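Troubleshooting log. The previous run stalled partway through. Resubmitting the same two chains, unchanged.
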Amino acid sequence: MKKRSVYLDYNATTPLHPEVKKALIEAMENFGNPSSMHEFGRKAKVLLDSAREKVSAFIGASSDEVVFVGSGSEANNTVLSMMACPSKHCCSFDGGTKKIVTTKIEHPCVFETAKCLVDRGIDVEFLNVDSSGKIDIDQYEKILSEGGVSLVSIMMANNEIGTVQDIKKLCHLAHKHAALFHTDAVQAVGKIPIDVKDLNVDFLTLSGHKIYGPKGIGALYVKKGIRFCPFIRGGHQEKGRRAGTENVLGIIGLGKAVEMREKEMESEEKRLLELKAILRKGFQEKIPNIHFNGHEKDCLAGTLNVSFSGAEGEAILLYLDMEGISVSTGSACSSGSLDPSHVLLATGVGPEQAHGSIRISLGRETKREDIDYLIDVFPRVIAKIREMSTVYPRNK
Amino acid sequence: MESNWVYTEEVKQHFMHPKNVLKDGENFKVDGEGMVGNIKCGDQMMMAIQVENDAIKDCRWKTYGCASAIASTSALSEMIKGMKLKDAFLLTPKDIMKKLGSLPEHKIHCSVLGDKALRAAINDYYEKNDMTDKVRKEEVKVICQCMNITDHEIEDAVLEGARTYYELQERTKLGTVCGQCEEPAKKLLEQYTKKHFKL
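Second attempt completed without errors. Output:
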């Protein structure tokens, strides 16, 4: 099969939607500061407001419940950090946070921030997950019923294995025990339908560049009436909830991105699910000793995480790169740390499976030919690595 | 795509076209064999040597690991052909690294298994050929008596990125009880950092 360039790392980031690109180029002429009262400022303000309408409508929020921030990571840091702010000056919390609950499979921006909270005197419980990446509900209910939980933060869809949690149910349980509920929905927004009113969450995080929008723009949904403390202080922007002159271009791009998702999401996700099924079947037929990670049904349509025994992830990734295929791995060696993916380890897989994992994430520019190309290239690459390997079972 | 590759051209060549891999079903006469590392850490290497007149005539290897582990084993296998056993025994990760150009700092620990596997293979050859007097096991010295931490563990911690005494303690828990080993541990920290990271 002829070599081609195949990008299958959409969970890492996505290319701009052509319509977003167009909108950005048009908007570039408007340099005004939306806070200025003159004509230039007002023009920018109109664009900003219209984007806010689109983003809030897309998740079922009202427009004053959406705070634009610099990234999904900033939104998540904002929510967790406000729980530990002892200041009466900036924070409408009382500093009385004793305990928060999160999970062992969160994105590092939640995981690491939660660990810092421990040093600031807050108890943090990291929930276990089962082999498919679903939350241990019994443990969750037990911790909640012990009382004292101020905030629960659970991601909606996992970036590495794609497992989707039942956020509505988890949120309901948190509220029953008077805890606030935050969900990091960076990987879920624009891929599965989301209505914050139906979910009843208090905070929700989303990001632009995962849904064909620009990088450097995210949004945090904050339910009306919920207390708040800004992460970046000292400005009236975003109703005092996020200081700093707005990233007008980024916000316009995000607005356009959700507008396009609204139109394309349903048919697109159906198409990706079909492509993923073909890929999965192709792997199963042509490569022995593989294991699929994550939940079989409750999983993002475009995410496939697979482990190849006897082959190390970074080696797989770099051989694929030579063949024009771009994917991601949970192996330790790619990340610079010595430990493989904390997500895979939390699901209880052995080290060999964690080191040998590859994440393939499909998106709107993925074609059937790309999938066929993968099914052609992967078996060769895996066989080559396994032939060098000390651990791959021989004579199989 | 070709620019900004994470490794040097030399590493890339060895990774793309690894030399002296032991093929499945290959009939290679083995005089000495050594296996080091474990899958838990993500790296394992096997080195098999053929010996003639106290020198390595030929060798084969297998590696489970990342690109730099594969490349460094391949580079090592080319270096040692024809080398006297006593010289081969003295090869260090630095020698391999010189051959490869360089490796990113966090990848250096991937290259230290090759020379370890080679020494294990040489010792294995000596043992099989009644030359046990030549076998040189690497001596292990306990530095932290309370937590039973050896100089090897300190070396590994340095290779894994520890550069300060605090980082060393984080990784090994050394010196967290009576604290008497602080001075010798700091000396070793400096020594190993120099050995592996100051080319």
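Takeaways: Residues 11 and 71 of chain B are 5 Å apart (CA to CA). The interface with chain A takes residues 1, 6, 15-16, 18, 21, 23-24, 35, 39-42, 44-46, 62-70, 104, 106-107, 109-110, 160 of chain B (CB under 8 Å).
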